[in-house]
Amino acid sequence: MRQAILNFPKQLLWEPQLVGEVHTRPIRRYIVIGMGGSHLGADLMRITHPRIPLIVHKNYSLPLLSREELKESLIILSSYSGNTEEVLHVFEQVRENDLKCVAITVGGKLLALAKEHHIPYVQLPDTGIQPRMATGFSKKALLKIMGDENSLQELSSLGAILQAGDFEERGREIAEEVKGLVPVVYASEANYPIAHNWKIKFNETGKIPAFSNMVPELNHNEMTSFSNPHFAKQFCFIILKDNTDHPRIIKRMEILKTLLAERGASIYDVEISHGNVWHKIFSTLLLADWSAYHVAQNLGHDPTEVPMVEEFKKLMY
User: Fold this and answer.
1) Among 101, 110, 266, 292, which is least packed by CB within 10 angstroms?
2) 188 by DSSP, 3-state: which?
């Protein structure tokens, strides 16, 4: 796991190759079908490409759209392993309905089916890392499918200068802050995909409960659950601060921090507005990786494997 974090910038240098032709017209929306780490790159599109019509769907079926709407869509089947059963179920539906699709995978059944049925695909490098650690690969694969060469070049430029090790010490500090507590990661709605990614890293790498939510919505409901200091003291609130957020969002975060601190909660600020949008995302996610890694180290957990997920999969068969 440690080496996977240190090697992350190399993912941004990778040059994806699209095998086969994607017919992009008419395409009115993109629909990404993926589970777990296989949809994290697509989630980040809300930040980098907020105007692109994109649905991220995490289930056994296609979204509830009309046949005409599905015909106007490009279905992106994303499964890091290539063996995700929900994605393979949707592959069959796509084939039955003669819909436009493309696959993103390292290999497995999905790659075999794509080759057999002449479906375009982007094959991810098989580096042995876990899907949640491959957001750089998956993000570049999506951009290749969408034909965004400018963004691909910007990511390559970032990969040449980003130093993963620069974020380890602060990650170690955050791991100490959350020791014995449940981390809750808050961000603006615009940056919520980053907060959710933090939650996933704490869950899978750190093997601890963690939660995420967005301002201002949480000010109307979830916030009240911490009115009682008995509960507030059990959590560490990690606030992702971005000075490009709406001024009222920034004010809400500051007031929220004050109210939580008065009730004995632990608060930790993470400034995420340095650099361009790509640097904001991936530097912050590297900090999340190091934080979760050192949580696992502190608890004596294996940060790489997810044994309960594997146990669950076996019980499904």
Assistant:
1) 266
2) strand
pLDDT at position 72 is 95
Beta bridge partners of 91: none
For residues 77-91, give the mean pLDDT: 97
pLDDT at 8: 97
Q: The whole model's pTM is what?
A: 0.95
At 274 the pLDDT is: 79
Token pair for 152? 């691909």
Mean pLDDT value across residues 207-230: 97
Nearest-angstrom CA–CA distance, 122 and 143:
11
Q: Can you spell out the DSSP letters for 100-156?
A: -EEEEESSHHHHHHHHHTT--EEEPP-----GGG-HHHHHHHHHHHTT-HHHHHHHH
CATH code, residues 164-299: 3.40.50.10490
CATH ID of 2-161, from 2.60.40.1510, 3.40.50.10490, 3.30.1330.60, 3.30.70.1520 = 3.40.50.10490
Domain with CATH 3.40.50.10490 in the chain: 2-161, 164-299
